[in-house]
Amino acid sequence: MNNTSVVLDGVSKHFKLKNHRSIKRMTVNLVTGRREINKFTALDQISFELDQGDTLGLLGLNGSGKSTLLKLVSGVMEPDEGKVLTRGRIAGLIEVGAGFHSELSGRENIFLNGAILGMTEAEIRRKFDSILAFSEMEQFLDSSVRHYSSGMFMRLAFAVAVHTDCDIFLIDEVLAVGDQPFKRKCMRKIGQLKEEGRTMIYVSHNPKQVLRLCERGIVLQAGRMAFEGTAEQAVKFIEYSVDDDDGEE
Amino acid sequence: MTVQTSDTTHPLGPLREPGQAGGLVDVFRRRYLLKLLVRKELRVRYQGSAVGLGWSYVQPLVRFCVYYFIAGLVVSHKTPHRALHIFCGLMMVQFFGNCMVAGTKSVIKNKSLVRKINMPREMFPVASVCVSLYHLFPMYVILFIGCFVSGWHPDALALLAMVMALAIMALWGLGVALILSSLNVFLRDVSNVVEVISTVLRWTCPMIYPWTAIAGKLANHPVLYDLYVSHPLCAAVVLANRAFWIPSFSNIHSATIHQLPQHIFLRGGILLGLGAVFLGIAQIIFRRLESRFAEQL
Fold this sequence. Notes:
By secondary structure, chain A is an alpha/beta fold.
């Protein structure tokens, strides 16, 4: 049986860098025949395939197109050229907490964010205790999220996100905040999701984490695929030093 | 690379484009999320307010008093049960105006979600129309009290008109919200234009003045007359009149003939059909523009 999970086939994404459009400016441009659109290529002819259960580390400097690639796989954006195809439910730790509302309580946010991430009411109720235990936020559950510290906010957002049932799990440099014990907990949970056979695409600047979680590696440079191979080779290619122990046990 | 997408036997289904969603059908499927978004909107709107939802009673009542005063003194609208006539028109106008104004801003207001999470974006205009519907409830309460005080004795057609008026407004209001919210992502002037239009709209239907006043003026302009009585808001207001105002007259039959345009149910039925087509077109426009929302916001 064909077990392909994610396919990118000649995918390119361009962005238009436009200045503010006002009638005055549009009229001036119309008269002078000048066009104010600068095209910026964020991704250029990217192709790869992942089978169900594959784990891919996506490496590259800032602005190399990693987050854009994840947005295309998650379906937030559509490619301008090429095709992105996925199989099964997609979830992940991308833009964690985007669905949170500061005026609502922690409890209300768990339900709202769970529903935004695609969970049904029954699913959220079933997982509620587990989400709460993971976040360790029992004490503040009924206070408004507005009063949370950024760390507390992230814990709750993370807890909801990692409890979403999925077949493809996307992770985007998410472990930058949070204390060491929580980071370790997250890494353990991500490891567990991997063991359960999810397809994973993991964006990180932390080579140790990439090596621990991923078998395959791709390096992006200015929107192009500069390297594709094993995770070890990819880390070597980009010359990351393996001395950062963020999130390590 | 050849991509095989026809593998339908896979337990997780075939390979598909991740952004592909079912539009309004998906919104219906994810009703629980819709419910939470509507609840959030209401909570946030009345956060820190002592009167809370009471404001949705105060605003229409104040508006009603102003219109009642203007209609009585300036426009010389002296028809019987004038208060009912104005109020049922006001409800429709207010609902449609809310759909337009709040619907237009609905996608922009949720841009952090639109930019970051893959979900049916139709959810936002639909939620804003639901919030407008929710605010209609207090107005119905006021209206029914007014009706019973004025000796309202509805017939079967009045109940049909009640449902039809609301259905026309909901269909057209949602269609308008879908189109305007997507256009507003690309050109923010849309929300300003909409506010201007919504202030004009209330004069394009028989609310502050009776229908008989306009019918006389347009008697020699059949095209203008047809345009006037056939636009959705006017048709809904007239149907609401048939539902709430006319049954307060002692002779419903004679009041219907003398106070309302002809063929209101036929016109209402056609507008319901056209409204469904309009909603379909609005969905297509929204879907086409939606693919560029994330990068535009």
